[in-house]
TrEMBL record:
Organism from which the protein derives: Candidatus Ornithocaccomicrobium faecavium
InterPro entries: DppA_N, Peptidase_M55, Peptidase_M55_sf
Coiled-coil ranges per UniProt: none
Source species, domain of life: Bacteria
Protein's UniProt name: M55 family metallopeptidase
Amino acid sequence: MEAYYIGIDMEGAACVVGTPGEGLSYGSANAAFAAREVLQEANAAARALFDCGAQRVILWDNHGGGVNFDYHQVDPRCEIALGSFHTRFPGIDESFAGILFIGYHASASTKDAALSHTYSSKTYQYYRINGRDVGEMEIDAAFAGRYGVPVLFASSDEAGAAQARASFAGIETVAVKKSFGWNAAISLHPETAQKRIYEGVKRAWEKRAALKPFAFAAPMDVAIRFQRIDAANAAKLYDRERKPFAFEDPYTRRGLLDDVTQLFD
């Protein structure tokens, strides 16, 4: 049975720029639209997979607390992962042929990328693994890569799409907007974005056999820089020997890990 897993964030969807000073907070004007739009983008991706012969597709609602959508609007052929998991791509295993990123955003240190951050713009300045700034795409891809599952496709703004191509050789991407800072972009019309995602996923499916799983070289040298000193002090981060991450400076914790899953232990 050919199965695929679609991770759905919200900041990288068409016509989504959030609110200055707040990002894409619950209850903000752009958040309700973002939830509707990115779900239709995910449905377009799922439809492309089913049209190519997929027999199982899981949509994972992974923005914030993981309860963002009107689930009646999900393509009824899909399964839905939702809620507050303590891992990434929950339930993934070797039976999946690939993962896809819909509505993902660029990493925290990216310039001119709408709503760029890594997990929380209020908490983290950056995640750095093996000397390279990384975002949610790389970390999520490494989770899937543990099971031999590659990344097939990513949709985002131009900066996020470029990040995906730099990290995952051969990946198909669709840029739904060009960002001009954290809260500004020129976007495709939502219907155009959905059509391009559908077409992009079909292209990705055609070359799926050539794609390789993503992995960080081990041991992983992980440095996490926080926005606030008190957050750095409170963070429960443990290295591969189950010792607390060291302090590089008052804002930055650093340690060695054997496996990406240890980030969320």
